[in-house]
From TrEMBL:
NCBIfam families attached to this UniProt entry: PRK02391.1
Enzyme active site: E141
Protein's organism: Streptomyces broussonetiae
UniProt keyword list: Cell membrane, Hydrolase, Membrane, Metal-binding, Metalloprotease, Protease, Transmembrane, Transmembrane helix, Zinc
Pfam families per the UniProt record, alphabetical: Peptidase_M48
Name of this chain's protein: Protease HtpX homolog
Listed cofactors: Zn(2+)
Entry membrane topology: Multi-pass membrane protein
Transmembrane stretches, start-end: 12-34, 40-57, 150-171, 186-207
Compartments it resides in: Cell membrane
Length: 302
């Protein structure tokens, strides 16, 4: 599928390098687990099953986790009209359209390819944005589908998810069952926990590096398709500002999906979370859109 979204060779190269490095890490991780657990069949079957589930059902998993539901044209005619217009402009298949009942103003795209993609917006986003601003946000999300980076980030995040689950399993097994195990078993569990923690840390850093660049690439592609970088900048400023006013406890439930959001669910206060954010800073994104607006000769007024 070749859409009219401008191709980004640097993004493609970064995705290839990230997948290659994560592939090597994945093989080493599985090999280490096989050596430690002495059961290659169990490790391979579980890993393959979970990877397949994440790849084939990522759209359903994301919609369920984010309280999203598929909506028909009769329910949200204006939303469907915007998606129809953008997919026609981009010459790409129309994704499934969904709406999340969350007040958090945001949007995300998921799915393994353009023919099996979902674009979801929250009620909070629909209430806050003007039609032109909504178009900019949806163009941003559709570019993720067109560039295939949404599929790459889904697969890439799998290794970190599995490593994190193993760390938790090993921790709670030691915590609640340590007294019933011999010393050798305890050593094996600690080794598995250490290897999983290291894999999680490495995959975390690789995914963050890719995720930040892909967000800048999506901003560029959306601005080029719509021809209105300043409108996308206005939407970005409005959404980021409104998210900062949402109580922190309400943001925590959404932060696990930050890598897929239009803008991350981060509060106002500075924290380590910002240093390891899945997105570039608001200033970086606005600066890029400002340069594009000047290059396109777009007026500053809206």
């Amino acid at each position: 599928m070749h859409s009219r979204f401008r191709s980004d060779r640097r993004l493609t190269a970064r995705m290839g390098v990230t997948l290659f490095l994560l592939g090597l890490l994945y093989v080493a991780f599985i090999a280490a687990l096989i050596v430690l657990l002495k059961s290659w069949v169990l490790v391979v079957v579980i890993a393959a099953g979970l990877l397949g589930a994440q790849y084939w059902f990522s759209d359903r998993i994301a919609l369920y986790a984010m309280r999203g539901r598929v909506v028909e044209r009769q329910e949200y005619p204006e939303l469907h009209a915007v998606v129809d217009r953008l997919t026609a402009m981009a010459d790409m298949p129309k994704p499934v359209v969904a709406v999340s009942a969350m007040d958090l103003p945001n949007a995300f795209a998921t799915g393994r390819n353009a023919d099996h993609a979902v674009v979801c917006v929250t009620d909070g986003l629909l209430r806050r944005l003007e039609p032109a601003e909504l178009e900019g946000v949806l163009a941003h999300e559709l570019s993720h589908v067109a560039h295939r980076d949404v599929a790459v980030i889904t697969v890439a995040s799998f290794l970190g998810v599995i490593a994190g689950l193993i760390v938790r399993f090993a921790f709670y097994s030691q915590l609640f069952g340590g007294g019933r195990r011999d010393q050798n078993t305890a050593v094996v569990f600690m080794a598995v926990m250490a290897v999983s923690a290291a894999v999680y840390a490495i995959s975390f850093l690789l995914i963050r590096a890719l995720s930040r660049y892909r967000e800048l690439a999506a901003d560029r592609a959306a601005a080029q398709l719509t021809g209105r970088p300043s409108v996308l900048a206005a939407a970005l400023t409005k959404v980021t500002g409104d998210i900062a006013r949402i109580p922190t406890r309400d943001l925590r439930t959404a932060q696990a999906f930050n890598a897929f959001y239009f803008t991350p669910a981060l509060g106002r206060e500075p924290s380590l979370a910002r240093l390891f954010s899945t997105h570039p800073t608001l200033e970086q994104r606005l600066e890029q859109l400002g340069r594009m607006s000047a290059e396109l000769g777009e007026g500053t007024g809206r």
